[in-house]
UniProtKB/TrEMBL annotation:
Belongs to the BZW family. This is W2 domain-containing protein. SMART domains: eIF5C (SM00515). Residues 307-472 form the W2 domain. Residues 46-63 have a biased composition (Low complexity). It comes from Prunus armeniaca (Apricot). It comes from the Eukaryota. PROSITE patterns: W2 (PS51363).
Length: 472
């Protein structure tokens, strides 16, 4: 190996041999150079003895093909998830066997299912098929599939609440232990309700009873929209199957629950305003609704529906008249509109008088703070539409109802509080209110809201009427 200090060594030897030769001073002190050379030689001998003979082709540096490795680690091959094939038949047979082993005792069956290691998360729909039909059903139908079956299902039981209620409680226990099955119950119920035509009449009644009891027991996993919406298929409605199912449901549910509870469920199911959609198109009328449910003994539901229809028609009439009065439509046209609405909706005369007063006052353009402007606007409105009021206030009872209506509005609206006597005087001047009606209200009025204040305010006008009566 070439010594890197050869050049320096030659310079050193030259300096020693020719002391008188004028050259540059030595590069290193001699003792230091000697020590350094001896260390290099010793290191070279140690390296040669410790390392084996190397390949002539190797170099002092790492080859470009070599790669660093991390010592002490193992590189494992990644395993892929192996999906086990579906086997709903084996699962269904296992559940059926639990039913058979316990002879249909739902308490014991629930305990066995709780302690079993069956894969309910994978076969939840199949489980509820076994609960309802006694075994697995063919895809898309309610027909039984191959495999074991048991005779303790919901559809095999008697169509009575006493027999079906234990099944509801049993399912409730299962869902408390395995809440992930809620979605499966919803799926199966939706599928059954969309296929009502595939069930026998007695089986449909059992489903209706089960559904009603499920709502009564507040069974998890059965939201109202799951029950009502899937049934609204044209073929099911047209055959009358939906009406029959919903009638059995209403009758069963109202045994333990109030009408308000039923209406709440209908609202959540988004069908409260569309109950006629359960009827075939040929029977879709308010008369058919009342006739059908009265015959079935659901008089409370009929009364509720009639009240709702009445409120809707009142609202429609009020909206139409408000528009006409605001636009100052011709009086004769407004009167004709009222008559037609009253005829179509069969509204009582008392409600007509109340509505007319409301729409007349609703059309007033009230001022924010100017009381005098408000008074003038109200009295001007009364004078303008007095003929409309006079047309429908045809007797003393209706006139008295109009005074009560004015009394209530003046009591509830601060800006009209002081206008009560002036409004009554204006209605008298326009021949809407008779003298006897005003005196009757003054002496024997029954509405206590603000009565003392209004009686005192109206007293001067009443005194004038009494004096005029005496003079006559």
């Amino acid at each position: 190996m070439r010594n890197p200090f050869n050049h320096k060594s030659r310079v050193l030897r030259c300096n020693l041999a020719c002391p008188n030769h004028h050259t540059s001073p030595p590069l290193y002190p001699l003792p230091l150079v000697s020590l350094f050379l001896s260390l290099i030689k010793k290191s070279s001998r140690t390296s040669e003895s410790a390392s084996p003979p190397s390949d002539p082709s190797s170099s002092w540096f790492m080859s470009s093909k070599e790669r660093p490795t991390l010592g002490g680690t193992r590189i494992k091959t990644r395993k892929r998830n192996i999906a086990a094939p579906l086997d709903p038949a084996a699962f269904a047979d296992a559940v059926v066997q639990i039913y058979l082993d316990n002879a249909g005792d739902l308490e014991l069956i629930a305990k066995c299912i709780e302690s079993s290691d069956l894969n309910f998360s994978r076969y939840g729909d199949t489980f509820f098929e076994v609960v309802f039909t006694g075994g697995r059903t063919q895809p898309g139908t309610t027909k039984p599939d191959e495999g074991e079956r048991h005779p303790y299902s919901v559809l095999e039981s008697e169509a009575t609440r006493e027999v079906i209620l234990p099944s509801v409680i049993y399912i409730q226990k299962i869902l408390r232990r395995r809440p992930f099955l809620i979605k499966n119950l919803e799926n199966v119920m939706r599928r059954f309700l969309q296929s009502l035509e595939l069930f026998e009449e007695n089986e449909r009644k059992k489903l209706a009873i089960f559904t009603a009891l499920a709502f009564s027991q507040k069974l998890s996993g059965l939201p109202p929209e799951t029950v009502f919406q899937p049934m609204l298929k044209d073929n099911l409605v047209g055959k009358g199957l939906v009406l029959s199912f919903i009638t059995d449901f209403f009758k069963e549910y109202l045994i333990d629950n109030s009408l308000d509870d039923l209406i709440s469920i209908l609202k959540r199911g988004k069908v409260e305003d569309n109950l006629l959609e359960f009827f075939p198109s040929t029977k879709r009328s308010d008369e058919s609704f009342s006739e059908h449910f009265t015959k079935e003994g659901l008089v409370a539901l009929v009364e509720y529906n009639e009240k709702k229809i009445f409120e809707v028609k009142l609202k429609e009439m009020k909206s139409a008249l408000t528009t006409q009065i605001t636009e100052e439509t011709d009086m004769s046209e407004v009167i004709e509109t009222v008559k037609q609405r009253v005829k179509d909706a069969k509204l009582p005369d008392v409600e007509v008088v109340r509505i007319l007063w409301d729409v007349i006052m609703d059309a007033v353009q009230w001022s924010g703070k100017n009381q005098q402007q408000n008074a003038n606007a109200a009295l001007r409105q009364v004078k303008t539409w007095a003929e409309l009021l006079n047309t429908f206030c045809t007797n003393g009872k209706l006139e008295l109802e109009l005074i009560y209506k004015v009394q209530m509005q003046c009591y509830e609206d601060a800006k009209l509080m002081k206008l009560f006597p002036e409004i009554v005087r204006s209605l008298y001047d326009q021949d809407v209110l008779a003298e006897d009606t005003i005196l009757h209200w003054f002496r024997r009025g029954t509405n206590p809201k603000g009565r003392q204040t209004f009686v005192k305010a109206l007293e001067p006008f009443v005194n004038w009427l009494e004096e005029a009566e005496e003079e006559e």
